[in-house]
Amino acid sequence: MGNWILSILSDPNTRWILLGCLLLGFSSGIIGSFTFLRRQSLMGDTLAHAALPGICIAFMLTETKSVGLFLFGALVAGIIATFGISWITRYSRIKQDAAMGIVLTVFFGIGVVMLTRIQHGASGSQSGLDKYLFGQAASMVMTDVYVMGGVCLVLLIACLVWFKEFKLVSFDPGFARGMGLPVAVLEQLILLLTVIAVVAGIQAVGVVLVAALLVTPAAAARCWTDSLALMVLLAGIFGALSGATGTIFSTLVPNLPTGPVTVLAATVLFAGSALLAPRRGLLARRLRSMQAKSAYLREERATLQTLSAQGTQQERGEM
């Protein structure tokens, strides 16, 4: 077992990919917990798809294949998308989920049109933009891992500093507003941190699948605990395990993409949690239901036996 792990880690590129996916999964799981609890799971998907036109515009303006410029364009597009969602919900009767759907389809449609135009251009074949649809973790280098580490550190510090405020906003924004907290600012801060996590994960997982790393580890962690602090920690651990699993399997199996395997690993963790969790798991619920039914039947049987015994005594007394 040890030799097998050492053989995988002997390649420096594999080590960077593994570390990058670990950091990506951990940071996505942490901030995804608050998105999940605020019932904004679609937000991550919206911001991921909204990043595509930002990446395309960055290439069209510079005609340079620069990961830094691409991610900056994705960040700007994600921020614009968040303001677009807020504007639609504030100045119209459209609810937030519908507003997110509108922004997702509009931005992604614009991005696909731009991507098609770039691919048919003179330098389109060298742009590498198609890799941002489904991700290419194998292209990670040392500088990308440093960026992942910085993003993970920023998200971790932000969640530690504003943990109580994020908790109140996630569970009871009305109460938080009554306490004098700037709820709107805190909500925008959570969205900004979500944008940062999405942008950091685009290179590894792609705009199509990056939302899964925000939602799935958080959903799996929710099955195991009612404590927010423990849920956030578990979501980060589940995300990191998913990233490590995706890297290891893609290293062992040729032509196996890291990003989709990472998402599949997160899905397996969620399925196992939903099935085996001691309180919220399907098996535990089924067992409690069977126990309650068995207890009810025992009580009914005891009641019938008591009534039958009383009836027999009355008949004997009358005789």
From TrEMBL:
Source species, domain of life: Bacteria
Subcellular location: Cell membrane
Gene3D superfamilies membership: ABC transporter involved in vitamin B12 uptake, BtuC
InterPro entries with a match to the protein in the record: ABC_BtuC-like (IPR037294), ABC_TroCD (IPR001626)
CDD domains: TM_ABC_iron-siderophores_like (cd06550)
Keywords: Cell membrane, Membrane, Transmembrane, Transmembrane helix, Transport
Gene Ontology biological process terms in this record: cellular response to iron ion; response to zinc ion; transmembrane transport
Function of the molecule: This protein is probably a component of a manganese permease, a binding protein-dependent, ATP-driven transport system.
Protein name listed in UniProt: Manganese transport system membrane protein MntC
Native organism: Paenibacillus xylanilyticus
Species classification: Bacteria, Bacillati, Bacillota, Bacilli, Bacillales
